[in-house]
């Protein structure tokens, strides 16, 4: 019980006007920088110019890889790795949300591999070395800014897998809540759903015993999201809300909340199939799946935990029976995600039908069963997908 | 608001049977190890033998420095530094509580300095380099296992100061709750008071604005201590209680709880004078001082925070006025420290009279004022000391 190894080496600069430290941090690793970003929103908000100013001031040589997709592709990773090899890149600077950072992490390892980067993601080849990574976060959601995981998609095979390696841990991350002011209400809500799901999956809802202190902290990060996500949705430039969500996103997945427990991210595994096949926003898929997953696995053994969640987070009446309390908790979570945050509540609404449920369910289970609070067979997963229609 | 830099690189092995990793971790830094420890309790509990077995298995050459004092002396630091220089030590292994670890941290820096180690503590000479440190914790209290601070005493001058430098951060710490089973009820209680004080001082009680999430997490760690310290006092071999206290001790001072705020440890500064002059147990001094400090600074501006503390931690009636609620909170804390944990409640009981209050108060303020929730003049500090008689 409670055995674990914990380490998180990322240096965080949190708050406004911290970019003046960008140059000095990058310079430690060399002079040739590959700047990576997505569709260009960082230009709209003026962040691109600010970053370039700092890089120029420090006298760094900058190369660029733009156009990193949400659900980043292995083909983009290959493109980035080619630039690193050709231009002798010393350090990577990812400016964006989880997709940009994840793609950059994979590039950092692929830069030292001579084949297709998909080999690294599928563990056909090991990660042996990686370029150092610095990040500037623009979306509070994935926690990628302070962990060692990257999720990469292969659209040829409809696969989306996580690559986890200590070498992928960012050296430094800049977290300025003001850089998330322009995030849309929809993406803010999806980000909140993602943060919550990290805590649910790893492992607020669990069959194993947790350390009491860690369990309490999990609930406080959940409460933080439940309090501030609706504020950020309504008042995008509320610094306090953006700051709390940003630090919550990092802490939901930086390793502390998983100390002493067993990680088995059922909802994440199921959602990866949805976004691998339909390229939807990860947080939205998680929001739609989570209440149905809870409903599906609700029984006498899971009810006490779901009820406790309802009581502690949403003020569900403690005098209810476990089963009634759990049902009420699931309703409260659904209301929060679909009413308060305004996310779509069904797969049908986002254009997904049941055609691929069987193949997705099988893949989610990787031919076996999907471990988690309750082990799920492919048939179970298919049933859960069906509940989301 | 909320600007901060956060980094904590220490690798934690938590739980039982993790010592099998000790050799591999030390070996990364070299082959010549200086093992440091205190009065020999580690021999009584069999930990010394276990450690030596692992070191021998790995083929490391071991030197020893034993007899490190509670409130470790600069003279002991000098002794350790001499061994490091003479024996070309590669890495330090501290086995003990905060005193042993703090002393070892100071040794790690003094090993590269040719004068008296007190020069480093008093900033007459800068820390330029330090030997790597691995720790095995045997007392949940100071958080030294996961921070970069060392508190060293000079009995010639009755001074006790903190030396803080990133190079002093332990590389690896082994936290096995079972290694604290033999800690006495008194020392367990003192450790709990120390953990609480870290949170109060840095900076649960503050005049500045805190990030909501961090404030909640502070209360979680406080609740953890309030729940488990009395259990550990009564049932010294309760693993769950020891585990929660151990992880709480690390997190109370590992930097996370100070993110976004201002550190000004009033009670710690006042206590350092008590233990510098009277060599008392640090946690006991903190326990005696804290409720008096709260009482002394209680006014309309501090009352809301003290009341909130009482309501959230001890279930004080929320409908009370701020002032009544705050008074009740101070009573609850006193009851917890002096009745539930059984600590002595006055300086008189531990043989301290008012003879040196004036000089200690002046030193605590370093000739100026002591910053904190409320700034304190030497006269204020003297008054607080007097309330502790």
Summarize the structure.
Chain A has 389 residues and is α/β, with parallel strands linked by helices.
Question: Could you please describe the fold and organization of this structure?
Answer:
The structure is a homodimer of 389-residue chains. In chain A, the strands form two sheets. Chain A has a six-stranded parallel β-sheet with strand order 1-8-5-4-2-3, sandwiched between helices. Chain A folds into two domains: 11-179, Rossmann fold (3-Layer(aba) Sandwich), CATH 3.40.50; 185-304 and 330-387, Dehydroquinate synthase-like, alpha domain (Up-down Bundle). Chain A has helices at 22-27, 41-44, 47-57, 74-87, 98-110, 118-121, 185-204, 212-234, 239-252, 266-278, 282-297, 303-314, 322-340, 357-364, 378-387, and strands at 4-14, 32-36, 61-65, 91-96, 133-137, 149-154, 159-164, 172-175. Chain A is globular, with a radius of gyration of 20 Å. Chain A has 389 residues and is α/β, with parallel strands linked by helices. The model of chain A has no long low-confidence stretch (mean pLDDT 95). Strand 1 (4-14) of chain A pairs antiparallel with strand 1 (4-14) of chain B.
Provide the succession of SSEs of chain A: EHEHHEHEHHEEEEHHHHHHHHH
Q: Main β-sheet of chain A: number of strands, strand sense, barrel status?
A: 6 strands, parallel
Going by CATH, what is the homologous superfamily of the largest domain in chain A? Dehydroquinate synthase-like - alpha domain
The proportion of residues forming helix of chain A, as a percent range, comes to 40-55%
The first-level CATH class of the largest domain in chain A is given as: Mainly Alpha
Q: Span from first to last CA of chain A? A: 40 Å
Please name the two chains that share the biggest interface, counting residues whose Cβ lies under 8 Å from a Cβ on the partner chain. Answer: A-B, 41 and 42 residues
* Quaternary organisation: homodimer
Instruction: Work out the helix count of chain A.
Output: 15
Protein name (chains A, B): NADH-dependent butanol dehydrogenase A
Domain Alcohol dehydrogenase iron-type/glycerol dehydrogenase GldA (chains A, B): 10-177
InterPro entries (chains A, B): ADH_Fe/GldA, ADH_Fe_C, BDH-like
GO molecular function, one term (chains A, B): alcohol dehydrogenase (NADP+) activity
